[in-house]
Amino acid sequence: MEESISENPNSKMTIYSNEKNININCERQLNDKILSEEKINQTTMKIEHIIKDIPLKPILNYNPDELRWNSTHTINLEHVYCYCAQDRTLDEPDFQCRVCKNFFHARCFRSPLKEVLPFLINYTLVCSLCSSTNTEEFHRSIASWKAICGCVIANLTSQKIISDHPEWTKDMISSKNHLELTRLEYFFTKKADIVPFLENPFNWKILCIDKEKASSWQSTLGNLLLSSKDTFRAQDEGNRSQNSPYSLIDTNLFQFRSMYTSGSHKLTLNTSRKRQNSIYHDENIHTKFLKNSSTISNSIENISSNIKKENLENKKDIKESRERKETWKKKESHTKKKDKVSDTNISNMSILPRIRPPPYRPSDFNSTPRLPTFIRVENNNINQDFYSLTDQPFNRKAFRYLPCEATPLMPNIMYRQIELPPYRARISWNDTSQHVFLDKDGMTATTDKGFRMARANVCMNEGDWYFEFIIERGNGDQGGFVRIGIARREASLDAPVGFDGYSYALRDKGGQKVHMSRPRDFMESFGTGDVIGFHVSFPKTTSKNSCILKSDIFRDRIPIRYKGQLYFEQLEYIPSKEMEDLMNPASNAVKSATLPSIIKNSFIKVYKNGKFMGTAFQDLYAFLPPNSQTIQAQDINDGMLGYYPAVSMYRGGIVRLNFGPLFKYPPKDIPLGSVVIPLFERYTEQIAEDIVWDLVDEIDLSFSSEIMDSLSAIRTKETTNSSEISEIKEIEDI
């Protein structure tokens, strides 16, 4: 080896060169490694700096997916909202996230909102839980005058509630008491209340973004109040004007959210018109509604599948007896289209959860039903005694009241409706304007105000009926006028009969027939001393062609106490936007409006002092769902849908009702008692129907308990999840 090296002198140089190259490469790699570590450190520092600037998502102490919301996603049964898990209150601004639909208090934002008012609706919010930046994305938009006015009246109402009840705590104005708060209604005028609120610079800045105080802005506001019948209610609908006192149609202020009044007072964000869960809450009732899980829904659908199949044929027959009229546009083009009942719609019908009443109180069994208090009205122009009624709840807006009592004979429904004397067909004590005066037998009505209405306590939904209106003062006699006819429950009690599409009337002056405030010539005038007979006919239904399907009757009524007396409180049917559009005189609105369904071959025939005057109305508007809906947009029939005899009086007009059996002028061309029935008989029919439905509800609630027990057992076998088991137990307690 040594010899070979000595023989080759260049070999040493080669080895040295290789060693040098290796050292250079090692040094380069070492430098590259140092540079890489420096870059990594710099990058890490930058990332750490960026992370420090990005806020973390808040951690909630509740599971939002377990909250049980009402159909409009504005109130949940747990009354837990926001990051703070606290309730919503009337005196604190909160906003709804457009993604998760939860509500968040303005004070809980990462950058708390200061220049805001409660009940704003012209905004969009993405909460920090839903935002990609982990912070709130809140943007205000330009508000319409309708949105501004709605927000103003809501704030005025909230302030009035708080000022009228200074002893109330914050908890008492929270969403868990929304039903009690909804009953409080206040009216405000443009000049005295709404304009001064907006004149406040702070309020104008918040509400009227990019709006200038033009000289006509107050007039614009007045015109909006006058025309927006879907959102604002006048205290006197019969004399609605710019200067009328107004309130919100839906007085549940917790419904306010983004774009709330963009369409109407109806909750248009929820496009489904199917039956949906609602939340009813009373401090003494603790009613509980749960979201329908897939297991419960499927089980109930399996149980009810046979009932749906049996009703399928009946639903198809209803289509024939409740035809839908064409729109004006279709009439002009002479094209006709028949409505078809979709089998899919029937199969997709959901079943509303039942409300279990509150437990009895010992005093419930000792209470004696009593009449309202009668306060005699002093009037020198009236020769008979009339009384105003107090110490009772009057039907109003979206609520209906019926006297009831506790009954241990039915342990599931626990309470039943009762009748108050006199026990006969008469004017309803509760279904009357507070400005109407009645006599003690409930048959005669008058008022000293503008037109006010009173409805009878019997409804007509099928068959032929006859009754009389006895005009004791009318057609200008001593300044009094009357309108007589029939009305549905949606018709306003503070307006005359025939004011809207929910009632049909005759006018004493000129004998005109009136519907949707449009008078048309019909008969000669009638006045003091005349007797007007009504023959009202709805096609008789059969079991095969029934318009009131037994499976469609749904009567959940919450017992409440009012001045020591028990009453049922239930949601009342309210006017629809479609019917309001028909009353709109604008030609475009009328042409685009779809006419409601009709009751084919129905009619109202009129007699004056026994003489036939003709057929005043025919093919009356249908009243069964979906033609009637509650404020919760529920397509339900409580068994008392139909048309009621109704009277409206003006400035001393007096009308007496006569339901038989003895009529002053019985018609000679129709056989009373066989084909045409005196309406007094409907009173006992209604009581019998109510008893039958009490029995059905008793069995239904008992059966529902057994179903829930079975579902609970199935759930227990399938899973050990404690939250699911507790949820089933809550259903059992309802």
From TrEMBL:
<feature type="region of interest" description="Disordered">
    <location>
        <begin position="314"/>
        <end position="345"/>
    </location>
</feature>
<dbReference type="InterPro" id="IPR011011">
    <property type="entry name" value="Znf_FYVE_PHD"/>
</dbReference>
<dbReference type="InterPro" id="IPR003877">
    <property type="entry name" value="SPRY_dom"/>
</dbReference>
<keyword id="KW-0862">Zinc</keyword>
<dbReference type="Pfam" id="PF00622">
    <property type="entry name" value="SPRY"/>
</dbReference>
<dbReference type="Pfam" id="PF21198">
    <property type="entry name" value="ASH2L-like_WH"/>
</dbReference>
<keyword id="KW-0863">Zinc-finger</keyword>
<dbReference type="InterPro" id="IPR049455">
    <property type="entry name" value="ASH2-like_PHD"/>
</dbReference>
<dbReference type="Pfam" id="PF21257">
    <property type="entry name" value="PHD_ash2p_like"/>
</dbReference>
<dbReference type="InterPro" id="IPR013320">
    <property type="entry name" value="ConA-like_dom_sf"/>
</dbReference>
<dbReference type="GO" id="GO:0000976">
    <property type="term" value="F:transcription cis-regulatory region binding"/>
</dbReference>
<dbReference type="InterPro" id="IPR001870">
    <property type="entry name" value="B30.2/SPRY"/>
</dbReference>
<dbReference type="GO" id="GO:0045814">
    <property type="term" value="P:negative regulation of gene expression, epigenetic"/>
</dbReference>
<dbReference type="InterPro" id="IPR053835">
    <property type="entry name" value="ASH2L-like_WH"/>
</dbReference>
<dbReference type="InterPro" id="IPR043136">
    <property type="entry name" value="B30.2/SPRY_sf"/>
</dbReference>
<feature type="compositionally biased region" description="Basic and acidic residues">
    <location>
        <begin position="314"/>
        <end position="330"/>
    </location>
</feature>
<protein>
    <recommendedName>
        <fullName>B30.2/SPRY domain-containing protein</fullName>
    </recommendedName>
</protein>
<comment type="similarity">
    <text>Belongs to the cclA family.</text>
</comment>
<keyword id="KW-0479">Metal-binding</keyword>
<dbReference type="InterPro" id="IPR037353">
    <property type="entry name" value="ASH2"/>
</dbReference>
<dbReference type="GO" id="GO:0008270">
    <property type="term" value="F:zinc ion binding"/>
</dbReference>
<dbReference type="GO" id="GO:0048189">
    <property type="term" value="C:Lid2 complex"/>
</dbReference>
<feature type="domain" description="B30.2/SPRY">
    <location>
        <begin position="405"/>
        <end position="595"/>
    </location>
</feature>
<dbReference type="GO" id="GO:0048188">
    <property type="term" value="C:Set1C/COMPASS complex"/>
</dbReference>
<dbReference type="InterPro" id="IPR019786">
    <property type="entry name" value="Zinc_finger_PHD-type_CS"/>
</dbReference>
<keyword id="KW-0539">Nucleus</keyword>
